[in-house]
Write a structure and sequence with these properties.
Layout lengths: L2 E5 L11 H10 L3 E3 L11 H11 L6 E6 L1 H12 L8 E5 L9 H4 L17 H6 L4 E5 L8 H11 L2 E4 L8 H4 L7 H8 L1
Parallel strand pairs: 1-2, 1-3, 3-4, 4-5, 5-6
Helix pairs in contact: 2-3
Length: about 190
């Protein structure tokens, strides 16, 4: 069955931003969509999250994995940890990042130490690439928290499709206002 799994960002929950919009719209056309409350969301932990998802969700060749902010980092880490026999259909990364060197604006609110367990010890880009049919990477040059170098590196390492959305900030209601209660550009990429 066609399914999508959305991983929220640090301190997030399933009811914020565009997540409910994606759930509602994708369900209308036959997708099963889940937005779980991730464990230790204030200090994301890759291994804990992987074990949680492994018990509760099936990732298979009908899966679209969507990660927002630190949820995108978790998505990459999960792909690295998946058994080689599992290849999901598509991964969509929104305002994702690959290390703790984010903007000074973000670190006013979130210390680097809160990301201590978010990343694998070392990225295995080949393994990640082999675990997903393709990669869509959304970013905005106006993002106050995540520099564009993160998206550019992911595009290069994963042969992904890079999509820049002007003035989207961090693709969240708190940074971009009510516009981010919806995200039709992302919905389109789930349905392709």
């Amino acid at each position: 069955m066609k399914n999508a799994l959305i991983l929220h960002g640090i301190g997030g929950n399933p009811g914020i931003n565009w997540y409910s919009y994606i759930v509602d719209q994708a369900k209308k056309i036959g997708y099963q969509v889940s937005v779980p409350q991730l464990p230790s969301s204030d200090k994301p932990d890759l291994n804990l999250t992987y074990k949680f998802l492994e018990r509760a969700y099936v990732l298979d060749n009908d899966t679209v994995l969507i990660g927002h902010s630190s949820g995108a980092s978790l998505a990459l880490g999960i792909l690295q940890l998946l058994p080689a026999s599992i290849v999901i259909r598509r991964t969509i990364l929104v305002s994702g990042f690959i290390d703790t060197n984010l903007t000074l604006e973000l670190h006013k609110y979130i210390p680097k130490s809160d990301y201590h367990k978010l990343f694998p010890q070392e990225w295995d880009w080949e393994k990640i690439k082999q675990s997903s049919g393709d990669f869509i990477i959304f970013y905005s040059l106006s993002d106050p928290f995540v520099q564009s170098r993160h998206a550019e590196t992911m595009k290069e390492k994963l042969s992904g499709t890079l999509i820049e959305i002007p003035n989207a900030l961090h693709f969240s209601v708190t940074s971009g206002g009510e516009r981010f209660k919806q995200f039709p550009e992302l919905l389109e990429k789930i349905l392709e």
